[in-house]
Amino acid sequence: MAQDGNIGLAIIGSGSSVPLLGLDNQALSQVVDTSDEWIASRTGIRSRRLASPVESLRSIATEAAKNALEMAGVPAAEVDLILLATSTPDDLFGTACQIQASLGATQAVAFDLTAACSGFVFGMVTAAQFIRTGAYKTVVLIGADILSRWVDWGDRRTCVLFGDGAGAVVLQATPARDGFLGFELRSDGTLNHSLNLAYQPQPQALTGGVAVSQGTFHPITMNGQEIYRFAVKKVPEVIEKALFRANLTVDQIDWLLLHQANQRILDAVADRLGIPADKVISNMAAYGNTSAASIPLALDEVVRSGNVRVGDTIVASGFGAGLSWGAAIFQWGR
Ligand code: ACO
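That is the input. Now the predicted structure with acetyl coenzyme *A docked in place:
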């Protein structure tokens, strides 16, 4: 049980899935006026995976969830809740229910959660609340995005940054020890203009002065320097607050797992917190910024490589559109 008498929880499995096709910086320089040197030196990104027209959010998210359930040794029929953190659903009404069907998780309730690149951390905290209250015992949390659908492939300031992917974890109530140690979430809608993927209304007259809006979403627009400054200031603050809530100090952290937006942001945040580079998890060179998928995708890689061990303390922090940002501190494994 958790210290305060609430039900404890453990993160007991991870999984991931990325689209088949990759596009490296060299190949991308055939699409827009850029270079491997520019992209790699400014961001640390060297390649990204892109979903083909026959792949879907449902397909990669389902694969990631299956892999996580397999690692956890939990049958799909035992899942109580499926949370899908995404900003790029196959269906604006939500994609989580389709994933429930694909998994055969017949007992699970499923819904989407949108908090952009913070979605996985917000999802983790949401899952923890359902478990702590005793409402649900087993939760599959997926972070998945196909931002290539919404990137302007003619805008070199944004299209070089993003990639597609999915990652998932299984969280379960546990009477043994509590592996969810603390969190802090933040939002600031006054900065929404600096990063968005906004609906663009297109007026359509119906009858008798009645008009509706039949538009579509405008590709991603971003003020890169504003987002950089925001991340480097706010992420260390929110991590420090989460550490305080967990009654932990920075030196008790085994791994820093940040949203994989930009290597320079990772380095600056680690530097401000005094966390050495060998504790910083980074895989953006291969995948770029995969939005809600980036944290579970990177987590799954380090877990499967054997670098992260049971009981290791991980601080995860997501940040992005909204603007939204947050940190969650947890111990890996049962
Ligand atoms: N290739 C070549 N040149 C480029 C490219 C490119 N892909 N993109 C921009 N440039 C040029 C610009 O045109 C500009 O040239 P100019 O001076 O002749 O006009 C020059 O490079 C500098 O452009 P800046 O936009 O000022 O470049 P900056 O140094 O700020 O780097 C970057 C841009 C990498 C985006 C940086 O601002 C950054 O890392 N910001 C954080 C963004 C981020 O991480 N966003 C995602 C987080 S939130 C989320 O995950 C959704």
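Residues 34, 38-39, 42-43, 116-117, 156-157, 160-161, 195, 222, 224-225, 227-228, 261-262, 265, 289, 291, 320-321 surround acetyl coenzyme *A (CB under 6 Å).
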